[in-house]
Specification:
The chain is an alpha/beta fold. The chain folds into three domains: about 1-130, Rossmann fold (3-Layer(aba) Sandwich); about 130-305, GAF domain (Beta-Lactamase), CATH 3.30.450.40; about 390-545, Heat Shock Protein 90 (2-Layer Sandwich). Helix content is about 50%, strand content about 20%. It has 15 helices and 18 strands. It has helices spanning about 15-25, 40-45, 65-75, 90-95, 110-140, 140-150, 150-165, 200-215, 235-240, 280-360, 370-395, 405-415, 440-460, 495-500, 515-525; strands at about 5-10, 30-35, 50-55, 80-85, 100-105, 170-180, 185-190, 195-200, 220, 255-260, 265-270, 400-405, 425-430, 435-440, 465-475, 480-485, 530-535, 540-545. Strands 8-7-6-11-10-9 form a six-stranded antiparallel beta sheet, sandwiched between helices. Strands 2-1-3-4-5 form a five-stranded parallel beta sheet, sandwiched between helices. α2 (about 40-45) runs parallel beside α3 and α13 (about 440-460) runs antiparallel to α15 (about 515-525). It is elongated. The protein starts with 6 loop residues before the first strand and ends in a 9-residue tail after the last strand. The model is unreliable at about 390-395 and about 550-555 (pLDDT under 50). Bound molecules: adenosine-5'-diphosphate. Adenosine-5'-diphosphate (ADP) binds near residues 455, 495 and 516.
């Protein structure tokens, strides 16, 4: 806004006062509106915001002070001159304390109102200048400009404004070549902001080609775009015309500044001057060249930052995918293990079924009951096994009082015939009878299966494949101890450190969950687990559990 165009609104319920003030300000170079009441003044401001209000204080309905309060809610910088009679002098003085500019006493001389208006306009000019200065101060430091702009378009426009400010240019445009996107645009700085014109794709392509062919190394003073090497020649006239900034007149000097780095041109800046006699010195061109290089570097950095962000995003995605794949692989291995266990159970059922069939055909009925009960028991075990898998997943636990010594014997009986234990001797070194134990039986079975399986696996390459178990009471503390030893490879120190970690395995077909599950089960039963082992000399896993009250053991 130019300062000769300040807008003044005169408000008074007496029309004659409004026209008097209008007349008084006729030669002050301001636009004047008039209103006969507060509400009328508000709707007038709605249409044409004003810089200065000259208002009567005493008006019917909304008085002058109320009016100003309402206006200031939206425009706190508006200047105010109150016109007041003697009766309202104190209100006017109070209003000034709250920020109104001035007051004049009615009846007033025309010269008085002119002086008050001039003072108000001076204040308005000063305020406008200081806000402009703050903007300029910000623009004077290129580093500041480049540092604070964090997107491509503000980087480009701020650099253009910076160049204009330092060269005292009145006009400025920048043609941005976005090779990657196959698009280009022309941005022009005007008093009211920026004009952004997107160039048709064909023009953008032609422009990129022209820039590649005709090298433009340094800033140059030109009188038409056609003077520049990329646009020299008759056939390029149309291209030159399509990127010509609106302010550029052929024959009037302007400066063209290529924004380039390492042979790649990313933009073309144009500066123009109101006064055609302005001389552009070599030092100015050097300054512009440095500004352009800085801009090009910042644009490069911004692209790098974008690429880095994208690469980081992709990396995160890959990481998520890998975790997902690993989960699937684990699930696959677990399924294989589960399949294997279920197959064992099914083998028992199938075997008994064929024996049953065979015997029935031969009319031999004496063993039938045994076959059926074995099948029923095995199916029961299968149920428990699958239920156990669920329980481990959900962490739920159903307790019953069982006899640990009996459980361990059952497990050994079940494991012995399995392929994994074919060449393995299982010794029961000591089992104290009658060890009552409050536990989730399926979880305890799972714990024992895992420990026995590991012990058998560890002895695969041993000359002597032996597993020894010992279960004894520690009556002093109401606890009992279960130890399983093997003649296997033992735990090297680094394996022992990680053996209880999820997914840690040294086996080709391992899944690394066995010991994790063991520890969880032991914890859930208030027990402790310790490993005693030396590499090459087997391992002993010792588990201590609290015993249950004796009476609770079922018959
Ligand atoms: P997995 O059996 O799938 O490998 P575990 O969690 O049961 O998973 O065991 C983790 C690792 O601990 C095994 O791969 C093995 O290296 C080691 N380990 C477990 N039990 C024994 C043992 N009795 N003797 C030697 N090493 C063992």
């Amino acid at each position: 806004m130019s300062d000769s165009r300040f807008r003044v609104l005169v408000v008074d319920d007496e029309e004659v006062v409004v026209s008097l003030v209008r007349d008084a300000l006729e030669d002050e170079g301001v636009d004047i509106d008039g209103a006969l009441s507060g509400p009328e003044a508000l709707s007038c401001i709605e249409k044409n915001p004003c810089d200065l209000i000259i208002t009567d204080i005493r008006m019917p309905g909304m008085d002058g002070i109320q009016l100003v309060t309402r206006v200031r809610e939206k425009n706190p910088d508006v200047q105010v001159i109150f016109m007041t009679g003697y009766a309202n002098l104190n209100s006017a003085k109070d209003a000034i304390k709250q920020g109104a500019s001035d007051y004049i006493m009615k009846p007033f001389e025309l010269v008085e109102i002119r002086q008050a208006v001039r003072r108000a306009l001076d204040a308005l000019r000063q305020a406008a200048e200081s806000s402009q200065t703050a903007k300029l101060n910000h623009l004077t430091d290129l580093n500041q400009v480049l540092f604070t702009a964090n997107d491509r378009s503000s980087l480009i426009t701020s650099s253009l404004q910076f160049a204009m400010l330092h060269q005292k240019a009145h006009f400025g445009s920048i043609v941005v070549l976005d090779g990657d996107q196959g698009s280009s645009s022309v941005i022009t700085v005007t008093d009211d902001g920026l004009i952004h014109v997107e160039l048709p794709q064909e023009t953008a392509m032609g422009l990129a080609g022209a820039m590649e062919r005709g090298r433009l190394e340094r800033p140059a003073v030109i009188s038409a775009i056609g003077d520049l090497p990329p646009f020299a020649g008759n056939r390029r006239e149309a291209l030159a015309e399509s990127i010509r900034p609106p302010w550029m007149t052929p024959g009037v000097s302007a400066v063209a500044v290529p924004v380039r780095r390492a042979g790649d041109i990313s933009a073309l800046m144009f500066l123009g001057f109101q006064d055609d006699t302005v001389t552009i010195r070599e030092a100015d061109l050097t300054f512009l060249s440095i500004t352009a290089t800085q801009l090009a570097m910042s644009l490069d950095n911004l692209s790098l930052l974008d690429e880095t962000r994208q690469a980081y995003r992709r990396l995160k995605e890959l990481q998520d995918e890998t975790i997902e794949l690993e989960k699937m692989a684990t699930r696959g291995q677990l399924s294989a293990e589960i399949g294997h266990e279920l197959n064992n159970f099914l083998g028992v059922v199938a075997g008994n079924l064929s024996l049953l069939d065979f015997n029935v055909k031969k009319q031999k009925f004496e063993n039938i009951e045994r076959y059926v009960s074995t099948m029923t028991e095995t199916i029961e075990k299968m149920k428990r096994f699958t239920g156990n898998l669920m329980d481990l997943r959900t962490g739920s636990s159903a307790r019953e009082t069982l006899s640990f010594d009996q459980t361990i014997r059952e497990v050994i009986d079940y494991l012995r015939p399995q392929k994994r234990f074919r060449d393995v001797s299982i010794f029961v070194a000591r089992i104290d009878e009658d060890i009552p134990f409050e536990a989730d039986s399926t979880q305890i079975l799972q714990l024992l299966y895992n420990l026995f399986n590991n012990a058998a696996d560890a002895t695969i390459d041993s000359d002597r494949r032996e597993i020894t178990v010992r279960v004894e009471k520690k009556s002093d503390r109401g606890r009992f101890r279960f130890a399983i030893s093997d003649t296997g490879i033992g735990f090297p120190e680094d394996v022992l450190r990680k053996a209880f970690n999820e997914k840690f395995t040294t086996k080709k077909t391992g899944h690394g969950f066995g010991l994790v599950v063991c520890r969880r089960i032991v914890d859930q039963h208030g027990g402790t687990v310790n490993v005693h082992s030396q590499q090459g000399q087997g391992a002993t896993i010792v588990i201590e559990f609290p015993m249950a009250a004796k009476e609770a053991v079922p018959a």
